[in-house]
Amino acid sequence: MTRRRAPRAAVSGAARVIRLAGVAAAGAVIGNAAGVAAVAALRRGAAPSRRQGSLRLRRGLAALQLVARGGARYAGSAPRLFAAAGEHRQQLRSDLALQTAEDVASTLGTMKGVLMKLGQMASYIDNGLSPGVRRTLSRLQDSVPPMSADLAAQVVEAELGRPPERAFARWDPEPIAAASIGQVHRAITHDGRAVAVKVQYPGIAETIAADLGNVALLRRMLRVTAPSQDVDALLAELRERVLEELDYRREADNQRFFAAYYDGHPTITVPAIVDELSTRRVVTSELADGARFAELAGWPQDERDLAAETIYRFVFRSLYELRAFNGDPHPGNYLFHGGGRVTFLDFGLVRHFTPVELQPLAQMARYLCVERDPEAFRRNLEKAGFLRPDAPLSTEEVVEYMAVFYDTVRESRPVTMTGDYSSAVVRRFFDVRSPVTTYASIPRSYVILQRINLGLFGLLGELTATANWRAIAEEIWPFVLGPPSTPVGEAELAWRARHPAHPPLPID
Amino acid sequence: MTAESYATAAGLIERSAAAYVSGVPERPADDGFFGPASVTWKMSADLTGPIAGLRSLMMQALHPLAMAGVDQHSGWRQDPVGRLAATSAYVTTISFGERAAAEQAAARVRRIHTHVRGVDGVTGRQYEASDPALLLWVHAALVESALAARETFGTPLPAPDADRYVAEMVVAAELVGVPAGLVPSDVAGLDGYLASVRPELRCTPAASESMAYLLDPPGLEPDIAEIWQDVRYGAVVALPDWAREMYGYRAPPLTPERREEIRQVLGILDAVFLGEPGVLEARQRIAARIRVTARPA
Q1: Smallest Cβ distance to A111: which of B14, B267, B291?
Q2: Whether B13 and A110 lie within 8 Å, measured CB to CB
Q3: Across the interface, do B276 and A115 touch by the CB < 8 Å criterion?
Q4: What is the DSSP letter of A506?
Q5: I need a labelling partner for B101 at 20 to 30 A (CA). Which of A93, A429, B23, B110 fits?
Q6: Contact present, A447 and A234 (Cβ < 8 Å)
Q7: Mean pLDDT, to the nearest integer, of A72-87?
Q8: Of A178, A202, A200, whose CA–CA distance to A103 is shortest?
Q9: ipTM score of the complex?
Q10: B198–chain A Cβ distance below 8 A for any pair
Q11: A210 to chain B: which residues are within 8 Å by CB?
């Protein structure tokens, strides 16, 4: 007799998500690896793609396009952007709109807001989750109606000191999108900028903070499927990140930080924050328009490759040079403009690393992929806490087990990401037959980086993006700092000349 | 009489959810016996539903004749989950269904009740399920439990709303065959009625056994089972002292922290329920109708 397992899945769905996330983290982190696409391809009996010639040609054409457009920010008049944002309006159940703070509390209180945050972690995991888990967590997100126009206006007035109609030259009372614990309105500022205004549900910060305070219950939720040594680290990391996310000023700070760094970048755009219209519960940033991820899937492959390259550069430049990781590589957080130009949205979940935290990651990639020194690789694995120092395993076994996560950056050659990528990594970590699994774990500092595997590489896989990821990684790796390997890399030179002073990572 | 063994409680959530979804019509011809402006509809959206339900079963089971009827006739031991799901479906249909659907469901229950008669082994008294006195007890226990659960773990209803709820529910008692004149129509009347029945109540072995099963149902998924422990505590702590004493249960006093924790657990359970097919849509159908009614003209 088979019974559906939905209820169990539902409760421990979050637990499973975290577990998956946690175990899969090491892949991306350790590897700075582009994934296991090659492994997936081999498994299907296909050779990894070798299209160097045509790749160069296509990239060359794209470079012309880049030059033609220059590194200028995409420009658009405020009315056009304002109108475009309306056309992309999400379908929200305005007939169910939350009218009062009490409505918010009954919809998102009593752990539902917390579960929803956990659900967001699941929303971009394509493989490894049962349909029941995914359904429950995504249903929970669907279950939150928007705020009524009045309620949103009350929040704006409380935060900005004026009702939205006066705080802005033009204000659309109908939200254009649901956002995490809030919703987004389009507006035009008094100085004529089209902006996106994210407004937080009233009282939600207090509610979620209180629910996150119930560590015992959260732990119980997670314990069912997660081994105890992981639960506390995951929980602590989750609480810290979510609590940060509740204060939009953090998000605004992070967005300014990224925007300043990528200012003038040929393909990366981060919308500017409008300081005077941003507070704890309202954050205003430039409105951007562009193709959504789903549309990108219909673009020619060379466009998809370029977009993937930009996303890849953004993630790893941010990690190695800003020592920061934007933990929300959700398809909804990108806008695509062609020629590899991408706008990055939503900096609600950013983790900053110390040099000490980041160094072992760099060292692992360095010793495995560049120096080819397995013992040094293992030492750094242990130093970072991914592997117990007393593990009775041969270094060969360890390398054999971990190498899969570096497959796309071990050799300098074009590799195609595939949709199997995330699941292959997850499968490797769940490979209970491997003796390594017993001794491996994810230290708390690196928990957030699981999103590289489960989010970023999932996206690149969906794009079936091809690139010489190793060559791109070498440009970024602080222990190589290789020459530009692609037209985008070359186009980056001018930008890099203007942003020279990144504190280098200490090497040994 | 040797007790038959009970079937497991696997599928409790799925089947309750399916029962709920089936009871909320998609394009109703009328508002049924309560309607979107009723306190009853507002009550039904409360998180405390599972505690209200469990507490209500615990109260109902203390009437030896009501318990005997369930124990001897309902297939409760063979299919407890099915029996609970049937009750959920009935309550949902009465609350949200069109009048015709509610009347049909009630007629079916009345028909079944005519066959439920016998002798209670403990008291030696004869019973008939269609006896208005028994039906009234079952009704009153349900109504009072909904209020008590909400009072203890939810947002308490303002007194006028609580009175209105009791008054609205009179029609539910009528539907199963209790003359309206016998049914309490405000909170004071309800309390008076419960006090008057108390001398008849006791915890029979059948009640004790059934409740032991309900409080720790075998076969639940492990994480649902964990949640159930809190629901169980919530139901027991929300019982009147005398009822708790009859069962011989002890419950540590409810601290504000524990109360918040129970509310959080109820939120998780609600999220699980919401994940079942059709539940979100059914909730939205109800919420949308309440909104339309509440909107000023």
Answers
A1: B267
A2: no
A3: no
A4: P
A5: A93
A6: yes
A7: 71
A8: A202
A9: 0.76
A10: no
A11: 260
Residue A67, classified by CB atoms within 10 Å of its CB into exposed (0-12), middle (13-18) or buried (19+), is: middle
Q: Alpha-carbon distance A269 to A264, whole Å?
A: 8
DSSP A231: H
**Residue the block writes with tokens 């279950």:** A143
- Contact between chains at A112 and B272 (C-beta distance less than 8 A): no
> At residue B270, does pLDDT exceed 70?
yes
Catalytic annotation, residues of A: 328
Query: To 10 degrees, what angle do helices B132-153 and B187-197 make?
Result: 120
Cα distance between residue B89 and residue A222, in whole Å: 32
Nearest CB to A6 within list B270, B275, B284: B275
Burial of B68 (0-12, 13-18, 19+ CB in 10 A): buried
The pTM (predicted TM-score) of the whole model is 0.77
CA dist B67 and B64 (Å) reads 5
Residue of B nearest to A148 (CA): B291
A247-251, A441-445, B115-119, B229-233: segment of lowest average pLDDT:
A441-445
CB contact under 8 A, B274 and A12: no
Long-range CB contact pairs, B8-11, < 8 A, 24+? B8/B81, B8/B217, B8/B218, B8/B219, B9/B80, B9/B81, B9/B217, B9/B218, B9/B219, B9/B220, B10/A3, B10/B81, B10/B219, B10/B220, B10/B221, B11/A3, B11/B81
Under 8 Å between Cβ of B272 and B265: no
Tokens matching residue A216: 């015992």
Locus of tokens 């027991």: B236
- Cβ-based neighbours of B196, under 8 Å, separated by 6 or more: none
